[in-house]
Amino acid sequence: MICLRCLRFLFYLPGETKLENIDLYWFNLNHDTVEYEINGMMILYTVPYLLNSQRQVYNHTFAGQSTINNSINHIEWIVDRDPLSIDTTLVHFQHVKSLVLFFDLQEMNMNINSWNVLLPFLRHLKLSFDSNPIKSGMSYYRSVTPNHYRCVILEQFRRCSSLLECLTLNWSVIELLLEHSFSPWPTVRQLNILMESYTNFPSASLIKQLPTDKAFPQLQYLSFGGRRFSFTRPESLATQILSCFDALISSSSKFIIFHVNRCCVTYISFPRTSRDILLTLLTEHVRSISNHYSSSKIVIDANEEIIIWL
User: Fold this and answer.
1) Would you say 48 and 77 are in contact if contact means Cβ atoms under 8 Å apart?
2) How far is CA 162 from its chain centroid?
3) Residue 86 in contact with residue 111, Cβ under 8 Å?
């Protein structure tokens, strides 16, 4: 028996295809929830399609509706409607272990007491306020969710997710958290930071604030992803990485893993000797700090992902 946990639909349509409302009703959707491109890719997503109207499929035919049950542990959702006024939908997150949410909001109810749901099983959370995958093909498009809305949403998840272990945020949101001195996220052990393509390497002074009682007191794993930091100047990159590494270990004795270029697109810098130079510089520095780190492991894989493992 196979238990389906997560499902996405991708449709490739011939050029003469025309989608009418009756076609979309087959999915119990409407034009507001479908973005499609002829001779390209069609993507379906869930808002405002209610999560409690999940469809059952028998022999490739859509049948009756069913309620989301406890076996579903991962949901990806584009939120372009007020997230604080959808209590009936949030109820269906209560048994979810992993959430990926893309917020694209221009207006929102600022009554923070309206969101009372608890997420006792949530372990992995990714929040994006800067992009909307459904509109990613529009070169001019960028999410406009205001900072004060972002602050409210972050605080809701901090309060509701009592056992959250892994959090993924854009660097601009991390800066927002540090700037406004939010209450700490006491259970987060892994923090994945997504860097925009135009973002420089984060400053050590900001990174030093992450594994502290004011931010992420249990932090053990920090990664930078989203944009790739090139190996073409290995000495400069080593200086930036080691500056952040030193800041992390000086702030917390719990810290274990620092991961750079996490899950970036495949790319090989030139010259190839850059990898060897960078690895040598990192290894010599980390192991020279103290005998405590003499057995640490530094890895640079084929996709130029850099991992310092203490």
Assistant:
1) no
2) 18
3) no
**Structure pTM?**
0.77
Say how many C-beta atoms besides its own lie within 10 A of residue 282's C-beta.
24
- Location of structure tokens 């992009």: 131
Decide: 250 and 269 in contact? Cβ < 8 Å. no
**β-strand pairing of 221-225 with 257-262:** parallel
Which residue bears the tokens 């205001």? 146
- 181: tokens are 């001195």
- pLDDT, average across residues 77-94: 61
Separation between Cα atoms, residue 241 and residue 261, nearest integer Å:
11
Q: How confident is the model at residue 6 (pLDDT cuts 50, 70, 90)?
A: very low
CA atoms within 13 A on the CB side of 261: 21
CB atoms inside a 10 Å sphere around CB 48: 12
28, 30, 89, 98, 112 from 44: Cα distances, Å: 11, 10, 18, 19, 30
Contact call for residues 103 and 153 (beta carbons, < 8 A): yes
Q: For residue 295, what pLDDT band results from cuts at 50, 70 and 90?
A: confident
Task: Tell me what percent of the residues of the chain surpass a pLDDT of 90.
Answer: 37
| Span 32-44, average pLDDT | 39
Torsion from C-alpha of 202, 206, 209, 211, nearest 10 degrees: 0
Q: 233-259 pLDDT, tens per residue? A: 999 999 999 999 999 999 999 999 999
Find, among 234, 206, 233, the residue nearest to 224 by Cα: 206
Q: Classify 277 as helix, strand or coil.
A: helix
